[in-house]
Amino acid sequence: MSVISGSTPAYRDGVAEAPRGERGGADRVMDAGPTTTPAAPAAHPLSAARLRVCLISSSFYGWGHYSGPGRVTRMLGRELARRGARVTAIVPRRHGQREVEQVDGITVLGYPAGSPWHALRLSRECDADIYHSQGPTLATLLAAAARPRRRHVITLRDAPSLRELGRSVRALIPDRARDVLPVLRDEHPLRWLGAVPANAVYCSAEELVALARARLHRRTAGFLPAPVSVPRRVQKSRVPTVCFLGSWAPHRHPERVLALAARFPSVRIIAIGRSPDRAHDLELRRAFARYANLHAPGAVNQFRSDALSQTLSESWVLVSTGGGRGLPDACVEGAAHGCAILSDADPDAFATRFGHHAATGDLAAGLEALLAGDAWRELGARGHAHVLATFDAEVALRRHLDAYGEVLA
After folding, report:
1. CB 100 within 8 A of CB 22
2. Hey, how many other C-beta atoms are within 10 angstroms of the C-beta on 43?
3. How far apart are CA 146 and CA 276, in angstroms?
4. How far apart are CA 9 and CA 98, in angstroms?
5. With 0-12 CB in 10 A as exposed, 13-18 as middle and 19+ as buried, what is 148?
6. In whole angstroms, how far apart are CA 284 and each of 29, 246, 255?
7. Whole-prediction pTM value?
8. Contact 27, 238 (CB under 8 A)
9. What is the pLDDT of residues 322-381, one digit of tens each?
10. Judging by DSSP bridges, how do beta strands 100-103 and 106-112 pair with one another?
11. C-alpha span between 358 and 364 (Å, rounded)
């Protein structure tokens, strides 16, 4: 029986258990790296223990948000805190979040989502050495105004064009007009103005660097990878398994992924995520409930359970329907677990190099190509090697400390 049928657990902020693979029958072990314990990393010249870092973001992972800049904020903050840094995060409060929370060694300060000017006071009281924004927001500008003598760093995570913005808005009008304002707030190109006062500008995708240099006239803009936990060994299910990880928001068109269940009845489709609109979420679940090979556990909190990592480890292919020029976190997470990438967007040629770029939006044809002759296996191994060398938490943290050292010099 499918677990997709319109259940409300998708709207809890707790951990939803992702469906497990064929235990005892999951025979495809991908040796993704050395099995010996890696040597302790060399000490970085800038000690994290001496840093006071304030992370500014439009969300924090949990409290209803399970992707986007909120995931990077929590992962980066956790890794910095583990190394002794004093880490604070300033984010809008959502879904029962209190004004002050302690999460993974991070002090999370929340301001009312409808009153972002409160971030000015929080930034002043925080008194950090570095204010690091994961994408430009009004809070980014307020932090610069509150502490003009501190160092301000911003990582640009996407740069949707006016054409892409228009396409997203048209997908919501007239049926879901109430969802237009969040799209305009989160994706409009003018958000880049928030990067103007920054002391240093970085990009989470190589493709964005040239764009940042042109739009913001920042010749020194560079690449700064988001940290990811990369397993050295993953065990693939013997059953062909495809995972979708992301928002079910209408303009992301999750129905295109759910429809793969009908086209590929012998393939297990696991669609992790939910729609911010409860009615739309239930509508999708009911529409596709008849497919026994389709599983939709809702949002899965990767910081409270290994269920997400386990699902990705068993999956053969990671499907992404994200647009824009930014590199989706889901693609990096999938590649970290040895999944081939199937995406209709191709930032940094990630799908082209490590899977299939569905340039015309034909996900079914792309999935057929990846499953044929186990083509996914070599592409997944290639993607894993790239992510291990570039996005692994230790590698990414050293890159961040390099960036912080340069801006503090």
Report:
1. no
2. 7
3. 32
4. 22
5. exposed
6. 34, 15, 7
7. 0.83
8. yes
9. 777 789 999 999 999 999 999 999 999 999 999 999 999 999 999 999 999 999 999 999
10. antiparallel
11. 9
